[in-house]
Amino acid sequence: MEQTSTAAASPAAAPGGRWIERYFRVCDRGSSLRTEVLAGIATFLASMYIIVVNPAILSDAGIPFSAALSATVLISFMSSLAMGLYARNPILVAPGMGMNALFTYTLVLGAGLSWEVALGCVFWSGVLFAVLAMFNVRQAIIEAIPASLRYAITCGIGLFITFIGLKNAGFIVGSEATLVTLGNFDASLVTFFIGLMATAIMVVLRFNGALILGIALTTLLSAPMGRLWGEEVMVEWSGLAAWPDFSAVMQVDIWGALKVAYLPFIFVMLFTNFFDALSCFMALSESADLKDKDGTPRNLKRSMTVDAFASMIAAPLGTSAAQTFIESGAGVAQGGRTGLVAVTIALLFLPFLFLSPLLSLVPGIATAPALVLVGLFMLAPVAKIDWARAEEAFPAFLAIILMPLTYSITLGIAFGFLSFVLIKLFTGRLEAIRPAMWVSAALSVLMLVTTH
């Protein structure tokens, strides 16, 4: 992972930057103002796809595309700003992939709920999340999770991010014969590979801003696509501005969602959001040493509180639940260590209430190299797992491998928890299972039964 100098670039070096240094403690965290801003840009570039992808999925549920886009930008701005100013962590909060699919394809298209009632389910899951965040539940769960599983969650998320990057680039595609295979060896794939290798070389040479430079370089290489190589044009001008649409604001049916039949949906959303948030904080804190004195993720209670209230606010705005983004690892890998990263991300989101057409200038293959390399950085804790002890290694292995293979962080965690509890139970090591771990395993079973 890149290391940055904290001397000359310190925000305290300029009078106007001293209040930033005092509030965010940039130098104390081993960073600089420049590095924090670059890290925010890196995370934004790696995750800005959500501005158009989230509305595309929610529109299948009946929410107008333009209204969902405006809601996506607003909740990303507000929740990331709160994460930066209140929790002071370098983490993006935005409508999550997986949660939007659960909203659209399970609640609305699968169970037949109206999108207004489905938004009500999102709201109540956020309320329950807020209750859990305000009490010491998250601390009990963290202390109950064995170190091997904590390391495994970090590594599994890293592989998951890498898989997302390879998929976005078309490097890995679906196959009826082998499930996945190498994509077509065309100009797009060659462009991605050149961008990937160039970014990796800059990381090896410790270029400050390597991930951003890699995104910029790959975008420039993508510009001639379809003009010189006869394929679909990937980078083209599609306009400058578009007016925001607030037609979905306050359309949530809060009371209509309070039916016994809808409780499983509320629970699944709660489980998914809570453990995704917890695992994200644990992974980032482990990979970048963002920890408090007691070894727990830094400012965890505040971070979880922000995540919970972001889910509550998302529903009235007209979008599925907001959650911590694993792509935050792009900024952490860039050297970001403070809430200034999240503030930068928030400010970058806001203009796209009006400038969303500009997103077409950065294709998916341009951010893919950064996501692939984030996976590399997050695999470091794999060496801390005691692979010689099978009772510790197997649950860790299961959690690591299932996250990318099932395309779900939650499923990887659930099976990791379950296997740990079952192995300890049937080998007579009950003292190793803490109460919160029993509860987590039971919730994992309930989640699996409800959703599958």
Description:
There is one protein chain. This protein is mainly α and 452 residues long. It has one domain. It has 19 helices and 4 strands. Strands 1-4 form a two-stranded antiparallel sheet. It has a two-stranded antiparallel sheet with strand order 2-3. The N terminus is likely disordered. It is a multi-pass membrane protein. Its main location: membrane. This is AGZA family xanthine/uracil permease-like MFS transporter. Keywords: Cell membrane, Membrane, Transmembrane, Transmembrane helix, Transport.
C-alpha-based Rg, rounded: 21 Å
Number of domains: 1
What gap, in angstroms, lies between the N and C termini?
A: 38 Å
Uncertain runs are 1-13
Alpha-beta classification:
mainly alpha
Number of strands: 4
Mean pLDDT: 84
Rough shape?
globular
- Most strands sheet: 2 strands, antiparallel
* Element pattern in H and E: HHHHEHHHHEEHHHHEHHHHHHH
Give, in spatial order, the strands making up the sheet with the most strands.
1-4
Helical content stands at 55-70%
| Alpha plus pi helix count | 19
Strand content: under 5%
